[in-house]
Amino acid sequence: MGQLDNRVVIVTGGAKSIGKAFARALAAEGAAVVIADIEDGADVASEIERDFSTSAISEIVDVRDEKSIRALTANVMARFGQIDILVNNAALFATLDLQPHAEISAEVWDSVMAVNVRGPFLMVKHVSPHMRAAGYGKIINIASGTVNKGMPNMLAYVTSKSALLGFTRSLSRELGNDGICVNTLSPGLIESASVLENPHHLGPSERVIASRAIQRTATPDDLLGALIFLSSAASDFVTGQTLAVDGGSINT
């Protein structure tokens, strides 16, 4: 028996990197998984069904587009009849250039806000009515440890992830009496596939590791325990919170 048996979860950005790790971990606990990504996640869905004997489907979704999200939720409800868990993971990060604020174009700023802030808002707008009708739900917003550190040359990204903290707190007040918990998972720098493909975000590894109380490299696997906790009945009285998973970096 898994902790998420008979639950249905949507993971945005679930076709690769951290999102793929999230989708697999949730499936390992028994959840049916919907991989919602602008890229095709059919291969990931097939892997999940093979490895974990649970249902998994891929939906091509642009989280910036309300019509696309409306279609996603309709398809999921038609297939499964419920949406229990939403992981707002899709974000622009690794492909962004490191730039001083004065060099960031308005177009880049708007694109980051569209994916990283508008996306979670639209997902919640269309998923929460189904959770409310069921009297149950878990919404997990993926933020970033950069919010606590105020990292330079990443202003658009850091600002977008800061917005998710307030988003989580306000939303938890609106949905608490409906049996819906809303929390934020805030990772430190993770050596994910996407980051390794864009090593300009890694910086000097010795400096990154030295900032942590647990002084080692972090991988997507380090996030999975916290994800399952926030997705499961173990966190039924936890809402409006931000759980930092960064090896103690913000404490040093």
Provide key terms for this protein.
252 residues, 7-stranded parallel sheet, alpha/beta, Rossmann fold, globular
Concise structural overview:
This protein has 252 residues and is an alpha/beta fold. The protein is built from nine helices and seven strands, in the order βαβαβαβαβααβαααβ.
**Silhouette:** globular
| Structure classification | alpha/beta
Helix content, binned percent: 40-55%
Compute the separation of the termini in Å.
Answer: 39 Å
Mean pLDDT: 92
Rg (C-alpha, Å): 17 Å
Strand content: 15-25%
Main pleated-sheet profile: 7 strands, parallel
- The CATH class, by name, is Alpha Beta
Q: From the 3D structure, determine the CATH topology.
A: Rossmann fold
Please tell me the total number of domains.
Answer: 1
Describe how the helices and strands are arranged.
Elements: E1 8-12, H1 17-28, E2 32-37, H2 42-52, E3 56-60, H3 66-80, E4 85-88, H4 106-134, E5 137-142, H5 146-149, H6 155-175, E6 180-187, H7 193-197, H8 205-210, H9 224-231, E7 242-245
Parallel strand pairs: 1-2, 1-4, 2-3, 4-5, 5-6, 6-7
Helix pairs in contact: 1-2, 1-9, 3-4, 4-6
